[in-house]
């Protein structure tokens, strides 16, 4: 049983073909620069050289067509034809309150996704484009929607409501929704397995730190609070997003500085965060490199704005950890994941500074040697009351497991999944 997982962005499509019977990835890759010229595909098959080819894709249908063509190619493909694909799983960023779990896609589901696309105007339209393209190219093949917001639908009203007139929630659905749900789900379940306890007995703080950044407070296996809100702009400092700011700031930019609404929105979403402070970087590797003096070039000192950006990001992560520890009452583990969380030991160390009072004891040497390729790693000391893990995320596996559950009729909710590859023999 081969399952195709698709993650459609505004100008890219990530894909993974997974064989459920053998529990292994057959192929994965990405089509980039869709609709903007010079598009190309990168295709990876375990045990083979990475394949890259330029191919002009004007829209998502042509990109998915290219993915299918590559997967079935006699030269670099891995399946004979589309009959091998049993189902397709689609990432959908925003499900609003309409969708609390993954669902089989039909006309009503598509209308529901359309109804909330104003809440995610940069994400839901390309997600829908990918769904429609896959339906046309693979008619009759079950299509399943997996929602970023679904895992957070367990939050209580005291967490997800904003202190604004209640009718805005009733009439327009204005509330906290949260994102990165499949990532928070996966790493929290894996952390429970590493702790050797059922997820329903674990309190975990998960930190998804990439270009987008979010934190989640998970109590007894379910999300009770998360840092992103109505949109992915709220919360922690990110690559180009401001995160938390004074709510009056957009009005100030518009009324006092003469910006248009779109200009203010662009400033907060695309020109702020790490980029806004450094003035030139979003990649934390560049920030870390430039925050340190170059011993081989004494004339090049450390970039003070890069130092500031690192300090700001670490401080905000530490502040959310403290807030969520208070919300949970008892914390069993803190988990770092995603590109920065898995690879930036310096940021992890700075974020965990001075948390010994609450039971965090970091193994600094082990932390600095831990990267994505290290796999699941405990970076706290063995006697640390709160365990700290680096766990590479695997959102595509959640897609696949949900697709299998939905199409086989065994799926009930997100809370029962991500146990398939638990390793009871794990040793810290």
Automatic annotation (TrEMBL):
Instruction: Specify whether Ligase is a keyword of the entry.
Output: no
State where ATP binds: 14, 208-212, 283-285, 339-343
Could you mention a single GO BP entry for this protein?
A: acetyl-CoA biosynthetic process
Coiled-coil spans are none
Localization per record: Cytoplasm
Q: Which cofactor does it need?
A: Mg(2+); Mn(2+)
The answer on whether this UniProt entry bears the keyword Transferase reads yes
Family under the similarity heading: Belongs to the acetokinase family.
What is the protein name stated in its UniProt record? Acetate kinase
Q: Lineage of this protein's species?
A: Bacteria, Pseudomonadati, Chrysiogenota, Chrysiogenia, Chrysiogenales
Gene name, please? ackA
């Amino acid at each position: 049983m081969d399952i195709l997982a698709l993650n459609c962005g505004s100008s890219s499509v990530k894909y993974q073909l997974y064989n459920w019977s053998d529990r292994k990835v057959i192929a994965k890759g990405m089509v980039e620069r869709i609709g903007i010229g010079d598009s190309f595909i990168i295709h990876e098959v375990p045990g083979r050289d990475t394949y890259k080819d330029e191919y002009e894709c004007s829209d998502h249908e042509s990109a998915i067509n290219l993915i299918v063509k590559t997967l079935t190619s006699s030269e670099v493909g891995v399946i004979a034809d589309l009959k091998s694909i049993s189902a397709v799983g689609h990432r959908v960023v925003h499900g609003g309150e309409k969708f609390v779990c993954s669902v089989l896609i039909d006309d009503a589901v598509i209308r529901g996704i359309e109804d909330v696309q104003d809440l995610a105007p940069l994400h839901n339209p390309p997600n829908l484009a990918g769904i429609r393209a896959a339906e046309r190219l693979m008619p009759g093949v079950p299509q399943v929607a997996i929602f970023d917001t679904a895992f957070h639908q367990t939050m209580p009203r005291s967490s997800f409501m904003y202190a604004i007139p209640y009718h805005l929630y009733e009439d327009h659905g204005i509330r906290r929704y949260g994102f990165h749900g499949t990532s928070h789900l996966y790493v929290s379940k894996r952390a429970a397995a590493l702790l050797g306890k059922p997820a329903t007995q674990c309190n975990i703080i998960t930190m998804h730190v990439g270009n987008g950044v979010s934190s989640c407070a998970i109590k007894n296996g379910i999300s009770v609070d998360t840092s992103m809100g109505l949109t992915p702009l709220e919360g922690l400092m990110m690559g180009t997003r401001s995160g938390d700011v004074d709510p009056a700031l957009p009005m100030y930019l518009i009324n006092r500085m003469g910006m248009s609404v779109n200009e203010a929105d662009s400033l907060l979403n695309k020109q702020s965060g790490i980029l806004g402070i450094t003035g030139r970087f979003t990649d934390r590797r560049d920030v870390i490199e430039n925050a340190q003096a170059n011993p081989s070039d004494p004339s090049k000192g450390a970039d003070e704005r890069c130092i500031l950006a690192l300090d700001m990001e670490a401080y905000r992560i530490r502040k959310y950890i403290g807030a969520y520890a208070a919300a949970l009452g008892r914390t069993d583990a803190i988990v770092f994941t995603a590109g920065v969380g898995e690879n930036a030991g310096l940021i992890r160390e700075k974020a965990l500074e001075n948390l010994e009072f609450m039971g965090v004891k970091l193994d600094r040497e082990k932390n600095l040697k831990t990267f994505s390729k290290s796999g699941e790693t405990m970076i706290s000391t063995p006697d640390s009351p709160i365990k700290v893990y680096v766990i590479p995320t695997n959102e595509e596996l959640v897609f696949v497991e949900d697709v299998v559950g939905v199409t086989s009729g065994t799926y009930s909710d997100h809370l029962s999944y991500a146990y398939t590859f638990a390793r009871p023999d794990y040793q810290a």
